[in-house]
């Protein structure tokens, strides 16, 4: 199930996207109060935007703008909204995104082709270990996509390893949809309860929320740890509510594939200019085919690298490497620039660490400091020194370390909406 356009030449893909882009521009110029105003303010006519390069004539849309003018982005009467989802805003209040009936069809199509990209077929059974409610888009997207694909679904929801294993042994799912660090919890539970994980019938995991790979696509520490115990394939998928689109890995596992019919992707620098090929930059997206709240040049806040060489799977679309980090969480540490995922990777090297959070704050001279709060029942001076040394040699930073009770760490890791665990608490202004 590879959409024809994904195997087409780069030129054809570009021409295809430009046709869709022109439809989108005409649509928002007529329906979107927000973009109508932007077009007027910048003296932009619908006919000015014909090519992907023409997009540069439009200002970017920031998360703050989406939050501040939330209602103005809506292109349909509220009565046409079927599903209301929210995404965390940067200014405190959540941002509301509505989806019409047509948007839900688009979401189903997106997820069906994304799961198919990772090898899921109609004969598979997928166990969802992620939440479907809490105003969350992803769970619903999986449900709709799996249904469209004709595969089976078991909606177990988040947490509870016992119920997860009971379900795996009863229903014999072939794939799990899961936050990868939760796989470690499942392995641990199986080990202490005499369950043989490698005869459980699970052949793969569709992983969300955390990276599995380093920038060269080799497995990171977390994925390595999982694979050393459980012989399953791990596929990364990257998506966000605002994009309503996923970038999923294929069998080659060399980045998440772009779906040209659903989204235009640009990689921009701090001045909103396209970065050179292969360079890190902020993923900036323009949604295609979205009816309720289409977005033009929306800056996602995620720093990524795009890969454009053709893929051995037969697709010719751009691939996104693992998210390097969130732009807002960039840490400037004594001349070094780093993002929290690199620190996650290092701490996963220590078996003794049972849980952790990073606190980033500014010291009195205005530079960034890192405090790692660690839960560990076997913490001693030697371990703390080993962690410090590891950070110094790998990242050239020297964090402060504090040992805390496990309950405190677990509480800190719980995000407000309880969707997925957080590992970074950013206390900077
Ligand atoms: Zn591929």
Write the layout of secondary structure elements.
Elements: H1 4-7, H2 10-31, H3 33-41, H4 63-68, E1 83-87, E2 95-99, H5 101-117, E3 125-128, H6 137-149, E4 152-155, H7 161-171, E5 175-178, H8 180-192, E6 204-207, H9 221-229, E7 233-240, E8 245-249, E9 256-257, E10 263-268, E11 280-287, E12 298-307, E13 319-320, E14 325-326, E15 331-333, E16 336-338, H10 340-347, E17 355-362, E18 368-375, H11 381-395, E19 400-403, H12 406-413, E20 424-426
Parallel strand pairs: 3-4, 3-5, 5-6, 6-7, 17-20, 18-19
Antiparallel strand pairs: 1-2, 7-8, 8-9, 9-13, 10-11, 11-12, 12-13, 12-14, 15-16, 17-18
Helix pairs in contact: 2-3, 5-6, 7-8, 8-9, 10-11
Shape: globular
Question: What would you call the structural class?
Answer: alpha/beta
> What fraction of the residues are assigned to beta strands by DSSP?
15-25%
Mean pLDDT: 93
Count of beta strands: 20
Biggest β-sheet description:
12 strands, mixed
Number of helices: 12
Helix content: 25-40%
Distance between the termini: 47 Å
Your description of this structure?
- By secondary structure, this protein is an alpha/beta fold.
- It has twelve helices and 20 strands.
- The chain has helices at 4-7, 10-31, 33-41, 63-68, 101-117, 137-149, 161-171, 180-192, 221-229, 340-347, 381-395, 406-413, and strands at residues 83-87, 95-99, 125-128, 152-155, 175-178, 204-207, 233-240, 245-249, 256-257, 263-268, 280-287, 298-307, 319-320, 325-326, 331-333, 336-338, 355-362, 368-375, 400-403, 424-426.
- The strands form four sheets. Strands 3, 4, 5, 6, 7, 8, 9, 10, 11, 12, 13 and 14 form a twelve-stranded mixed beta sheet that branches.
- Helix 5 crosses helix 6 (137-149), helix 7 packs across helix 8 (180-192) and helix 10 (340-347) crosses helix 11.
- The longest helix is centred in the first third of the chain and has 22 residues, at 10-31.
- It is globular, with a radius of gyration of 22 Å.
- The protein starts with a helix and ends with a strand.
- The mean pLDDT is 93.
- Zinc ion binds next to loops.
- The site of zinc ion has 6 residues, from loops.
């Amino acid at each position: 199930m590879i959409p024809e356009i994904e195997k087409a030449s780069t030129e054809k893909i570009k021409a295809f996207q430009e046709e869709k882009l022109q439809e989108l521009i005409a649509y928002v110029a007529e329906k979107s109060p927000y973009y109508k105003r932007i077009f007027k303010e910048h003296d932009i006519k619908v006919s000015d935007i014909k090519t992907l390069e023409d997009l540069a004539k439009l200002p970017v849309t920031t998360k703050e703008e989406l939050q501040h003018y939330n209602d103005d982005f809506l292109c349909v009467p509220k009565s046409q909204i079927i599903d209301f989802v929210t995404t965390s805003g940067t200014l405190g209040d959540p941002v509301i995104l509505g989806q019409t009936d047509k948007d839900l069809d688009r979401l189903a199509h997106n997820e069906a082709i994304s799961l198919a990209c990772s090898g899921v077929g109609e004969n598979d059974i997928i166990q969802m270990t992620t939440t479907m409610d809490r105003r969350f888009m992803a769970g619903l997207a999986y449900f709709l996509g799996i249904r469209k694909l004709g595969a089976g679904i078991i909606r177990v929801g988040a947490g509870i390893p016992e119920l997860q294993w009971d379900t795996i042994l009863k229903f014999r799912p072939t794939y799990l949809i899961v936050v990868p660090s939760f796989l470690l919890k499942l392995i641990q539970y199986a080990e202490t309860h005499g369950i043989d994980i490698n005869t459980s019938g699970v052949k793969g995991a569709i992983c969300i929320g955390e990276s599995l790979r380093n920038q060269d696509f080799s497995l990171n520490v977390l994925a390595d740890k999982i694979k050393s115990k459980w012989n399953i394939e791990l596929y990364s998928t990257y998506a966000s509510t605002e994009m309503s689109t996923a970038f999923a890995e294929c069998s080659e596992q060399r980045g998440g594939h772009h779906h040209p019919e659903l989204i235009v992707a640009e990689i921009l620098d701090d001045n909103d200019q396209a970065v050179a090929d292969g360079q890190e930059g902020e993923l900036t997206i323009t949604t295609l085919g979205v009816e309720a709240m289409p977005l033009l040049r929306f800056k996602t806040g995620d720093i990524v690298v795009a890969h454009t060489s053709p893929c051995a799977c037969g697709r010719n679309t751009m691939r996104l490497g693992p998210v390097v980090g969130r732009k807002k969480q960039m840490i400037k540490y004594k001349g070094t620039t780093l993002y929290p995922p690199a620190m996650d990777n290092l701490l996963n090297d220590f078996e003794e660490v049972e849980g952790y959070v990073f606190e980033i704050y500014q010291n009195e001279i205005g530079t960034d400091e890192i405090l790692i709060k660690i839960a560990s029942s076997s913490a001693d001076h030697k371990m703390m020194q080993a962690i410090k040394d590891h950070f110094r040699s790998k990242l050239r930073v020297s964090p402060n370390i504090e040992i805390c009770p496990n309950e405190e760490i677990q509480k800190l890791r719980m995000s407000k909406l309880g969707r997925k665990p957080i590992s970074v608490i950013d206390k900077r202004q």
